Amino acid sequence: QADHIPTRDNPWLSAIQRWQQEGLPVEVHPEDDFVYDLWRATEDYFDYDLVYFWPDTSPRFPIQTVAEDEEYVIETTEYGGLRRNHKDLSSTPQIIKSACKRQEDWKAIKPRLKPDRDRVDWAEDLPRWQKANEKGKFIAYWGVFGYDKIQSYVASDRLLMAIGTEPDWVRDMYETDATLMIEMHKIMKAGGFEFDGAFIACDLGYRNGLLFSPHHYDEQLRPTFQRLVDYFHSEGLPVILHSDGCIKELIPRFIEDGLDCLQPLEVKAGMDLVELKQAFGTQIAFMGGIDVRAMADPDPAVIENEIRTKIPIAKQGGGYIYHSDHSVPDNVSFDQYRHVLELVKQYGSY
User: What is the pTM assigned to this prediction?
Assistant: First the structure.
């Protein structure tokens, strides 16, 4: 019997760096994988109940810095493209060049997407997994798939055109990537990892609705989604889906296809936690739905009202995991975020 709702969040790197200046006692060695290690150390400090591990499912092109200044860095990507990014990763990268403009480009990259053990950081991740397992954490296998993943290869506008005019190409990209995700789970499992669930990510919506029609979802992406859910269920793993934006239209399909939990329920896109709990709470679990804008409000009563009016309803009968409605930005102070977790503990207890 649960005594509290589970917790998980994903603060921005720039938020963590701010919190360090405000008293977060987390330090890492910058000569190592600074971003990854700082993120993991913060995860340990807040003692989230859910953690995840993942393999590298990119084509593994070398990442090289092309230009940089005090604020930005321009670099090649592991997907064969070129991007411009804030050094503190405080926004979505600007895609300067994508690797695939036509099917021939994809055919040249596809042979690089083969499963192998080198896609896993065994030396770093396996000891972390053992530590998380000893602590009784819910450990998920994590990966991006489908439309969201293929945007790493094909520019969004070009990909949307392909969805309408080159469906066979789109399906091939979806399925190739899903195959790699499945095979890498098998490799990690054989190498000593044990997982409690799968956390798969594919942004399908924006503020006002879906990024493409339900028809195209059914025709192209849904078979891949069903394949992933069926595979992880065959391994005894419940499945959490991450999708930003307004995706209410697809929830009945997710339920029909066996999805166990939906995250993060973006408030500004109309994904209301209480409304969704009342409509679908007996059929699917929910994770998220707590407005990050309320976290940043200088009046602490705003975030307390947000949590007080949502979590007691969402937790009824189980089926709710705390998470912000997106990720925690750097306009939320360390004290504000600690207050959020205190409120979650207060209103999320059984």
Answer: 0.95
